[in-house]
Amino acid sequence: MNILVLGGTGQLGQCLGKVASQRNITSITFADEIVGNILDIDVLEKLFIAEKPAFVINCAAYTAVDKAEDEVELSRKINRDGAENIAKLCVKYKATLLHISTDFIFEGNVPTLLNEESPAEPISVYGLTKLEGEKAITDVLDQYYIVRTAWLYSEFANNFMKTMIKLGTDRDSLGIIADQVGTPTYGVDLAGALLDIIASDKKAYGIYHYSNEGAVSWYDFAKAIFEIGNITVAVKPLKTSEYPTKATRPAFSVMDKTKIKTTFGIDVPYWRDSLKVAISAL
Ligand SMILES: NC(=O)C1=CN([C@@H]2O[C@H](COP(=O)(O)OP(=O)(O)OC[C@H]3O[C@@H](n4cnc5c(N)ncnc54)[C@H](OP(=O)(O)O)[C@@H]3O)[C@@H](O)[C@H]2O)C=CC1
Ligand SMILES: Cc1cn([C@H]2C[C@H](O)[C@@H](COP(=O)(O)OP(=O)(O)O[C@H]3O[C@@H](C)C(=O)[C@@H](O)[C@H]3O)O2)c(=O)[nH]c1=O
User: Fold this and answer.
1) What are phi and psi for residue 173, nearest 5 degrees?
2) What does the buried/exposed string (b/e) look like for 99-129 if buried means 16 or more CB atoms within 10 Å of the residue's CB?
3) What percent of the chain has pLDDT over 70?
4) Coil, strand or helix: which one is 278?
5) Can you tell me the distance from the alpha carbon of 273 to that of 36, in angstroms, rounded to the nearest whole number?
6) Residue 153, in any domain of the structure
7) Which helix (H) or strand (E) holds 30?
8) Domain membership flag for residue 222
9) CA separation for the pair 219, 237 (Å, rounded)
10) Which ligand has the nearest atom to the CA of 251?
């Protein structure tokens, strides 16, 4: 059963590469933006024909949250139209799609756990276009898993953990937002969960939430990165209003993972345990 990974050179794509090789999965192909441009349906169709995937994992996305506020059309093209192109080809070639979405589809104005039925009310262009991507898939395809995740980090590509390690090493002090709460997700854990879903062959299609366990603010997360990484830097907790950004982010986006755990028997590590693993992998 061939697996095709789109956006294969991004952060999650590389995490999938790591886990696939740990598990000796060889029937997996990682396509970059050139051979697997999700905006070009003809290029994509050639790839489907060549690879004959039973499963397609879409890791390709526009993920620059602040920049998206100024690049609405490009963000929409990649996050919505790209997802729709993939879904149409999955229908045509009878492949199952695993698509990744985000906690940023939620408004996050109430401090309660978010489950798969919680109403989605995005407050940023990135969140809105990711939600549009979800809808484009569910409108045309039945065989899909949409896995929403949050605060993804790893030893690969760019992410909050690596930014903190760089800033914490270069600077004497930092201010980090302490009134936005969520759950970090180690990309290697998420990659394992995606491959578990494929291996289960349960056909329990639908939307699922996956992050690590626990809840922290960005400030707590940064402090843990410095502590575990042995980096000495003064860290000041900030209110969101004290760190202005182009995009508005949810104040609370902790997700309920009950559905993915009970459906697939997936074990979800505690965020701090996974952070230790990620830092030692750097
Ligand atoms: N990062 C995070 O904190 C979170 C991410 N997610 C979701 O997880 C998924 C994976 O994210 P992550 O790996 O971190 O993101 P990355 O930005 O690291 O990777 C996205 C990849 O998509 C590629 N890409 C962009 N445009 C196209 C295109 N037209 N065709 C093919 N590939 C394209 C990018 O290539 P290039 O870099 O060359 O443009 C990049 O390699 C995304 O769906 C994201 O929305 C969800 C929650 C949190
Ligand atoms: C660099 C920095 C960031 N921050 C804040 C800004 C923001 O609220 C928070 C995280 O900043 P970042 O820009 O690194 O992360 P951001 O790009 O907002 O992360 C999001 O990415 C998208 C793709 C998702 O899907 C989300 O789940 C989430 O992971 O930390 C500080 O307070 N101080 C700092 O020095």
Assistant:
1) -145, 155
2) bbbbbbbbbbeeeeebeeebebebbbbbbbb
3) 100
4) helix
5) 34
6) yes
7) strand 28-31
8) no
9) 6
10) 2
By DSSP bridging, strand 152-153 and strand 185-186 are parallel
Residue (of 247, 281, 272, 267) closest to 124 by Cα position: 247
Nearest CA among 150, 234, 219 for reference residue 190: 150
pLDDT category at 96 given cuts 50, 70, 90 is very high
* Domain at 9, CATH number: 3.40.50.720
pLDDT value at residue 57: 99
What CA–CA distance (Å, rounded) separates 251 from 234? 24
Confidence (pLDDT) at 232: 97
Q: Which two tokens stand for residue 154?
A: 């790893």
Flag whether 239 is in a domain: no
Mutate to test the pocket of ligand 1, among 5, 6, 11 (most ligand atoms within 8 A of CB): 11
Please name the residue that has the structure tokens 């490009």.
74
Within a domain: residue 237?
A: no
Show the domain range for 44.
3-159+183-214+253-270
Does 208 qualify as catalytic in the annotation? no
How many domains, the chain?
A: 1
What span, in angstroms and rounded, lies between the C-alpha atoms of 55 and 2?
7
194 lines ligand 1 (CB under 6 A): no
Mean of the pLDDT values across residues 70-88? 98
Residue in 126, 153, 208, 219 annotated catalytic: 126
- pLDDT in the model for residue 157: 98
pTM above 0.90, yes or no: yes
Count of all residues that appear for the chain in the document: 282
Strand 216-217 and strand 181-182: pairing? antiparallel
Give the model's confidence band at 155: pLDDT under 50 very low, under 70 low, under 90 confident, else very high: very high
Residue 242 neighbours by CB under 8 Å, 6+ apart: 175, 177
